[in-house]
Fold this protein.
Amino acid sequence: MLTGALALSACGPGAKSQTVPADLPPLKTMAPFRIGTCVQALHLDDPALAGLVARQVSQLTPEWEMKMEYIVQPDGSFRFDAPDRIAAFARAHGMGLLGHTLVWYAQAPPAFQALDESRIKFVDAYRNYILAVAGRYRGQVVGWDVVNEAVAEDGNGWRDSLWSQKLGAFEHIALAYRTAREADPQAVLLLNDYNLEYNPRKRATFLKLAERLLSSGAPLTGLGTQMHVAADIEPSKIREMMRDLASLGLPIHVSELDISLSEAENKLLSRSDLQRRQAAVYGETAQAFMALPERQRFAFTLWGLRDRDSWLRKAHPTDAPAPFDDAGRPKLGAAALVEAFRG
């Protein structure tokens, strides 16, 4: 399925095609949709990385500094310095900004847990938070991951959380979308989750939740699939997932793509085999996204451009999941993306 230099990469570890052309065009110039990456505010202090980001992408996602864990302080006040820096960088470089994320089961700030409901009702505090955060970036954010990872790991229903306990399993989700739309009438409002390519049951539950939101009148207007995958994933899994998500007719965001070498299950593959397979998976994912109707291609976001900045390095110090190496040089994965975006 892959052409050009990448197609020759199966010739062996010493193949000349392992060398990526020095004049490889920036990713954002090749795609007919926004190409994104995640950043932290501290990344903007690294001139090499900031330059790479400015050259390669047209959309930014705050990696964690637009989540409750950063914004909500112990006394209930809100902190916006880091997300404001990221928003300013995006604005200065003509980039879109993806808000990530308003509601996540995994985070329950102490200020919410200790809320004195004789002073403010939980539902009002919940709404006030969403209105404050989504409203602050109204007009700049192109989309919000309104609710993140709502589906249980095994696909059996939805996750339990402080929000579901206080406001209802479905009710807190629907309320988040209605409130986000109140705060920002224009942004695409996404439902974002992971392992949708690996777990068909979870994918089915994810789609049922999306259908219920739509039937309830909640303003769900896009679907996000994170795609933290391993280099030995079967290509059919990616194509099947993309086909199923497209069935609702909503815009789709490949929202957090990285391709791990260390998490591959096939231990018979050498590292060079995994590197070639990784490049192929980058290409196959981009091809599956390109096959969507144009109106359903919201954006394509890489969860880090350089290997050295990847969250996966904490668990696997030798992993190299990104399309650019530690020094910011393009790898075969970057070449595969360019080939796929060329169509």
Notes: The chain has one domain: 4-342. The mean pLDDT is 94. The longest strand covers residues 96-104. The two ends are 11 Å apart (CA to CA).
